[in-house]
Amino acid sequence: MQTDSLGDRILNGERRALARAITLVESNRADHRAQAAELLGQLAGAGRQSLRIGMSGTPGVGKSTFIESFGMMLTAQGLRVAVLAVDPSSARSGGSILGDKTRMERLSRDKNAFIRPSPSQSHLGGVARRTREAIALCEAAAYDVVLIETVGVGQSETVVSELSDLFLLLLAPAGGDELQGVKRGIMEMADIILVNKADGDLKATATRTCADYAGALRLLRKRPQDPEGYPRAMTVSAVEEHGLEQAWEEMQTLTQWRRDSGHWDTNRATQARYWFEQEVRHALLARLETPTARAEMEQMSAKVGAGDLSPSAAAEHMLASLGVD
Amino acid sequence: MQTDSLGDRILNGERRALARAITLVESNRADHRAQAAELLGQLAGAGRQSLRIGMSGTPGVGKSTFIESFGMMLTAQGLRVAVLAVDPSSARSGGSILGDKTRMERLSRDKNAFIRPSPSQSHLGGVARRTREAIALCEAAAYDVVLIETVGVGQSETVVSELSDLFLLLLAPAGGDELQGVKRGIMEMADIILVNKADGDLKATATRTCADYAGALRLLRKRPQDPEGYPRAMTVSAVEEHGLEQAWEEMQTLTQWRRDSGHWDTNRATQARYWFEQEVRHALLARLETPTARAEMEQMSAKVGAGDLSPSAAAEHMLASLGVD
Predict the structure, then answer these.
(1) What is residue B194's three-state secondary structure?
(2) Does A269 contact B314 at a Cβ distance shorter than 8 Å?
(3) ipTM, two decimals
């Protein structure tokens, strides 16, 4: 009896095979990296072009509840949904987003959904590559939608937006003054802002908050690739499962527009070139990440800070010790 | 008859020696670089800690006139003033800021002033190191104030602010709507905003513009290292030489506060460590800057953009060709 290869099992939509493959791409072991590269080569071009939806949101905004409700709505339409997480902080904080699948109990039991907790990697460069490869695996497994969730730590939103076709920002109802809390750069990434918790006592506040964000979005420069009225702010209630279909319609409208205008393809090509360059630069700079190099950088930096060595002289020492001429 | 060395002549305050030394640090020739390194080593710790004032401003704001008036006011007080320029675009645009000393005719004839046009270097990393070394030479020559001017191109403001003790932003009178033109990041760098051209017909507009910027500055987070009321916006007229002394008083107050609080020293140490790290990273990435590497990066990038190669596979090719394992 012949066993199907891991690649075949992924192509057949076996979730356990997909999970195992993602474990391979997340591994730092050289043999795993080699197997991952072979697998990715084998699967290249297979499956479909998923809609990659990046998502960020402030803590406490109800991201898990939203992903569960939104994901269930999509699977109810016959779509297959994968959920990935980018959390460069998880190695430090211990608790990871999506680390506990029980937070999305219904969705994780849905056979058309695949949920992958965040890998325990503190290095953003590594996280980006692994997430990119995990997305490629999900596309090979023919998922229609890949949701890439991030916590707003460091540069993780930038990474996720460079991996996504659409970027959602999930926000909580709040007083006008609190708008300041969202960094302008994050606002600029958002294609659609969803003000969650538009239910019960918070409904009116959510509507006001949404209007405030809509106003803030109008102040941002319109993107030439998008139709009038985007980026857009809307209210949703993940708990009451309200507004989710309208949100999905907006995403589809925007996606279709971008596909028709050619921006979709251009954007994916630009992203791929970006990641190629990032990977080369990352590898060149990796010589500074060994324990020896880190220790020596630290030592040199202390001398520079104390005024005992000029920055240039210290750099020359360091480069000589790295064997760079 | 023994000739004084270049270093001795710089220590003696000879402007021509200083100019020649800056030409050495700006050169790409290996023998010049070696001479420059030796000279900088010889002069390390000599002279004085100048006040390094970074300066940026929108085109047409009257930067040259301001530098001339402000510089003349300082030299009239017996201070020695050096003016350097950071303009990564000068190699391309042909015309460089400060390229024409006749724009500052009076100041360039003043024996207590030294004006250095921008080097023709299009590479920001290189410009930063050369400017840092030029500042060190000016300090060895015991200039009291080093003004570092930049045009607002690319990241040049960031470079200048990382080289400065104080950062001035020179702006023109304008309607409220035009405030948007100044990038928030630049606003955040400014210690003092000077609204120039507060003279003649523009006086009232300048006062209003100043109030608008003062309001905008209050919205930015106060820096813990600064006294109440900073960053601050003021009006000046470079043409009528009005407000310059008040501006200089503000700079001195802020400087004294930072010296007393220890922030001055901390800031310089942080900057030195930053430049050390930048220089090491820059040298590691320099392998991508050879004509061969650039051509190959471009070729690989095109394949990645066309979907013929994955970003990771292309990066592996590229790294192999660079001899990085």
Answers:
(1) strand
(2) no
(3) 0.82
